[in-house]
Every structure is written in C-alpha cells, then in structure tokens.
Amino acid sequence: MELCCLDLTVQLLPGQIDAGDSVAQNRKLTFTITLTIAPNLPQTLCVRITDADDPQVLLTSCVSAADYPGLKAAQGLLVDFQSFPQHLIQLLQSCQQQHGQLQPRMGVVLSGCGAVPGLLGETAGPPSQSGGVVMQVVEHNSFRRLCHLAMAVAPAATATKLRHLADCLSQLQVCGMCGV
C-alpha cells in the first residue's frame, strides 16, 4: 500500500570522498513512502527516492517493524512503528512547505552522495571508497541544525533499478503518444 508520494527540492551535500568539492546543489527529488503489510511477515516501511531529471538515481531504505526498535533507541524517537510512517510523511511535508523560503527551517539533506552515480554528476567509486548515503530530515534554528531523523539509504538493487528505468521509458512513450 503506497502511503505518500512527495516532490521535494532538497539540498545535496558532497560525500566524504568528495570533501574537496564544497558546491552543494538543489535537486527536485520524489519521495515515495510505502508500507508493506503481508500475512506472516513483519510490516515494512520503504522510502524510495527518485530524480525525474536523472532516471539512474534510485535510492531506497526499508525499516521493518522488527528493526524499528533499534532505530527508535539509537535516535531517541518517541513514536512507535505504527505511528512512524505518518510522522515521517509529516516531516517531509514540513520540508516541502518550507521550500522556496529565503531561510527554510526544515529541510532534507542527503550526504555521502558520491556513492550514487549521477547524483552529483560523478560515477560511483568502489564500495570501499564510496561510503553510505544518509538521508537526514533537519530543522535549522539560529543556534544549530537539529536532526529529527537520519536513515541510511542505498542505491536500489539492479532488478529494482531496471524496473524503474522501464517505468520511466513507458512514461516517455505515453507522453510522446499524447503529444505532451
């Protein structure tokens, strides 16, 4: 069951391997949040991040009900797994509402993007060099940047990426037939 699909412009910061490149960029990314409920399996929340301008960008993160207590304890979260998807959606919607303001209070930051081909215009290095990618939902105030949530995200598996590219191609073909 797909819960939410949000288009956000987020600030992308260079990863540790690209520490010499201090240029941050804004990109419009789509966050799709899906809650999988299957009999005899734990519920799983999946976050999928795509870039309409670059179809090779596809990041995913999944948190199961069984994994959530560790995330909750590590980050001091106050909600249970049943409430987590709605709170994540609310945080992302807050970021979306702040977009375009001179000094937005809420934002999404992806760091370690050198591990994702195309995200900062480079190709991925070997796994030993290109550490993980972290999505942070942050709030800025006059004193500091507060991280509400940090989730590890990873480039999607090859089969998932191929399905995504096929969907993108299908959309282009449909738009071409419609004359759009």
The gist of it:
By secondary structure, the protein is of the alpha+beta class.
Features:
180 residues, alpha+beta, Dna Repair Protein Xrcc4, Chain: A, domain 1, 7-stranded mixed β-barrel, 3 helices, 7 strands, globular
What does this structure look like?
It is found in: Cytoplasm, Cytoskeleton, Microtubule organizing center, Centrosome. Keywords: Cell cycle, Coiled coil, Cytoplasm, Cytoskeleton. Its main location: cytoplasm. The chain is an alpha+beta fold and 180 residues long. It has one domain (2-178): Dna Repair Protein Xrcc4, Chain: A, domain 1. It contains three helices and seven strands, in the order ββββααβββα. The chain has a seven-stranded mixed barrel. The radius of gyration is 17 Å and the shape is globular.
Backbone shape? globular
Q: If you average the pLDDT, what whole number results?
A: 76
- Remind me, CATH topology? Dna Repair Protein Xrcc4, Chain: A, domain 1
Low-confidence stretches: 13-23, 120-130
Topology as a string of helices (H) and strands (E): EEEEHHEEEH
Q: Could you give the order of strands across the largest sheet?
A: 1-2-3-4-7-6-5
Share in helix: 10-25%
The fourth-level CATH homologous superfamily is: Spindle assembly abnormal protein 6, N-terminal domain
Q: Quickly count the domains.
A: 1
What's the gyration radius in Å?
17 Å
Q: Would you state the CATH class?
A: Mainly Beta
Number of strands: 7
InterPro entries: SAS-6_N, SAS-6_N_sf
Keywords: Cell cycle, Coiled coil, Cytoplasm, Cytoskeleton
Pfam families: SAS-6_N
Subcellular location: Cytoplasm, Cytoskeleton, Microtubule organizing center, Centrosome
